[in-house]
Amino acid sequence: MLIGDIQAQIPRRAELEAAMLAAQSDAREQDGCISFSFAAAVGEPGHFLVVERWRDRAAMEAHFRSPSFVAYQAAITGLLARDTELRVYTVTDASLPVDSSGLDLANDE
Question: What is the pLDDT of residues 32-89, one digit of tens each?
Fold first, then answer.
């Protein structure tokens, strides 16, 4: 699993969001991509996270060598307030702490 911390220059936030949407769409089509999502940090304008899950390290490394990742890097040049911080986590086990199958969402607005 990879988690990235991204900070946009506020006046250029919309440009960064467009680049992230394109990168997200491209990554999801790559072999070995399990999930790939950018998300806004609540209450922190211009702060985004990217959470990526790849089948294995080889698939992740192939992503970083892909033309779409190179295009993303070129697209975000000049749009960031600081360098992006990426961390790779090795997960050996995962579980759901709460069984969500019993939730009643019928009245959820």
Answer: 999 999 999 999 999 999 999 999 999 999 999 999 999 999 999 999 999 999 999 9
Residue 40 CB coordination number (10 Å):
16
- What is the predicted pLDDT for the residue at 97? 82
What Å distances lie between residue 75 and 8, 48, 53, 80, CA to CA? Answer: 13, 16, 22, 11
Residues 6+ apart with CB under 8 A from 47: 5, 6, 7, 8, 40, 41
Tell me how crowded residue 49 is: count the other CB atoms within 10 A of its CB: 13
Contact between 8 and 80 (Cβ < 8 Å): yes
Locate 15 and state its tokens.
Answer: 């440009």
